[in-house]
Design a protein that fits this description.
Shape: globular
InterPro entries: Complex_I_Subunit_2 (IPR050175), NADH_DH_su2_C (IPR010933), NADH_UbQ_OxRdtase_chain2 (IPR003917), ND/Mrp_TM (IPR001750)
Protein name: NADH-ubiquinone oxidoreductase chain 2
Low-confidence stretches: none
Distance between the termini: 35 Å
Oligomer: single chain
Mean pLDDT: 93
Organism: Anolis opalinus
Helix content: over 70%
EC number: 7.1.1.2
Membrane topology: Multi-pass membrane protein
Structural class: mainly alpha
Length: 335
Amino acid sequence: SSLATGTIITMTSHHWLMAWIGLEMNTLAIIPIISTMHNPRSTEAATKYFLTQAAASAMILFSSMINAWQTGTWNITDLSYSPAHILLTMALAMKLGLAPMHFWLPEVLQGSTLTTALIITTWQKLAPMALIYMTLNNLSTTALITLGLLSSIVGGWGGLNQTQTRKIMAFSSIAHLGWMFTITSIMPNIMILNLMIYMIMTTAMFCSLILSKSKTIQDTTEAWTLSPMLTVVMMTLLLSLGGLPPLTGFMPKWLILEELVTQNLTSTAIIMAMSALLSLFFYLRLTYTTTLTLSPNTAQTKFKWRFKPNHMTLLMGASSTMTIFLLPMTPLILL
């Protein structure tokens, strides 16, 4: 409840201090959630998360104070002093885990449970993205596009040699946020659409990993023995995350590339498209292990065609349906 309250306070505030209080509540509420496992790894993850988020919050407060000294106002939308908005962009990038301030994200996700990793990669992105949306008119377009480009490349490159599904999802998160940042200053409504679709896709993917208890790539090879249906759904979810055309994940990439080319940012669009290929490679590798390989098993296990309905299966059902079938809705969304 504190997590939800913190995000809502940040999203509804007009005063910098209130926004900062919301972010601090968010950080402090997630710490016990990360460290629920009571092992050294989760404690380390919680400490890393706390230190980076506290440093980023301090930078946000510092940038708003500099701006208040210069302009005489604490209003979020009135961020007109140049050093203040550059500092704010860097602080929010650090909070979100964008490159080059991304090092904490894979480590923290690896130290926490799959459910906690789901919260960090979805809900925790809302408050900083809301601040970016509110201060958009005053932020530097060059800084946003540079951060976006760097993140999409690092997100693709970093995930290539990972064997842990949580780390792969962390680099996937970095790459997706890179796409969002690149389009933010050009068309904010596409950024919000991208954020929504990213959250739906990530939720669906984490739910399927939780149901199949897949913590490493090797674990995904055993998903078939649990439920063949789940395996097929996981394959389509991974392809959708990679952004392949008949699936929903293609929609934000298509719209962003189209808009970048319209704005004569062709070289940026080319680099973004190339970085998407890096991400696609590790998604395809996961798809391959999930659907086309079987781990050596002697036990004749029974297939679970149906899971007992609980909140996780319902959440996965809704989110995976949207992840797979939402692309034909694109014209309606754009209207």
